[in-house]
């Protein structure tokens, strides 16, 4: 596969052709920023109101660079960490996860204020903007179970909301294909290496980001203007999370 569209075990290096094509993609982005996004209904079922000031959600939808970058621009989100979920602690390293046999998915841990944005709204943005939920064990140019579409509920209420929303969207036929998103048991979250964190924000012109991920941020702005913020909240630090 052309390196322009690959995200392999190591960050790809691009030649002159890739830079030229990235420039073309940047020019096209302004006219077609939301062509891969889908306007979908909000969840009919959401979490009950609580007095909590902070909550977490864990989702996986392809390369974590783009998913993290999208949610860093969402109002009410206080931090987003890229990492690995679904496998064991001793295999939670990028080179191992890239082999596709660890059970891990590239994922993000989203910390948010439920008084500003609900878990259901997080899922609505996840399904409509952050990734394509009809692609089984791949996402765009990236193939393997580590790029699967998955939700890892942190409690029973989140699980009920996620399952009900998938059923709602499937019944409404809002996507061209069937939703393949898995609702999986949360076994722990392990933060990715530092060079993966805030990658979209730090490298918006990097060819992979420019072509595959910046259109998602544009779509967030267009489809969810009330929840879009131009100044992203940046990842600082987060410990591994256990169930």
Condensed summary:
The protein is built from eight helices and eight strands, in the order αβαβαβαβββαββααα. With 243 residues, it is of the alpha+beta class.
Strand runs, count? 8
Q: What is the CATH T-level topology of one domain?
A: Peptide Methionine Sulfoxide Reductase, Chain A
Secondary-structure content class: alpha+beta
Order of helices and strands: HEHEHEHEEEHEEHHH
Largest sheet, in brief, is:
6 strands, mixed
Describe this structure in words.
With 243 residues, the chain is an alpha+beta fold. It has a domain at 53-203: 2-Layer Sandwich (Peptide Methionine Sulfoxide Reductase, Chain A). The protein is 31% helix and 15% strand. The protein has eight helices and eight strands. It has helices spanning 16-29, 64-71, 94-97, 119-130, 156-172, 199-202, 207-212, 214-223, and strands at 55-61, 77-85, 105-112, 138-139, 142-143, 149-151, 182-183, 189-191. A six-stranded mixed beta sheet has the order 7-6-1-3-2-8. Strands 4-5 form a two-stranded antiparallel ribbon. Strand 4 (138-139) and strand 5 (142-143) form a beta hairpin. The radius of gyration is 17 Å and the shape is globular. The model is unreliable at 1-6 and 8-35 (pLDDT under 50).
């Amino acid at each position: 596969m052309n390196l322009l569209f690959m995200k392999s075990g190591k960050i790809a290096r691009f030649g002159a052709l890739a830079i030229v094509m990235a420039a073309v993609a940047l020019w096209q982005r302004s006219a077609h920023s939301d062509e891969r996004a889908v306007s979908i209904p909000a969840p009919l079922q959401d979490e009950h109101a609580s007095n909590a000031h902070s909550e977490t959600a864990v989702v996986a939808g392809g390369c974590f660079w783009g998913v993290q970058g999208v949610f860093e621009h969402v109002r009410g989100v206080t931090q987003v960490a890229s990492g690995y979920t679904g496998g064991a602690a001793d295999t939670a390293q990028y080179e191992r996860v890239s082999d596709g046999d660890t059970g891990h998915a590239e994922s993000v841990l989203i910390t948010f204020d439920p008084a500003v944005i609900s878990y259901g709204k997080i899922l609505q943005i996840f399904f409509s903007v952050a990734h394509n939920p009809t692609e089984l064990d791949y996402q765009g140019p990236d193939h393997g179970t580590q790029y699967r579409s998955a939700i890892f509920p942190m409690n029973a209420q989140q699980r009920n909301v996620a399952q009900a929303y998938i059923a709602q969207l499937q019944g409404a036929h809002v996507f061209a294909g069937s939703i393949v998103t898995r609702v999986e048991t949360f076994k722990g979250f392990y933060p990715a290496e530092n060079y993966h964190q805030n990658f979209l924000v730090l490298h918006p012109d990097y060819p992979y980001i420019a072509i595959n991920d910046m259109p998602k941020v544009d779509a967030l702005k267009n489809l969810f203007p009330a929840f879009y913020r131009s100044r992203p909240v940046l990842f600082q630090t987060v410990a591994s999370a256990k169930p």
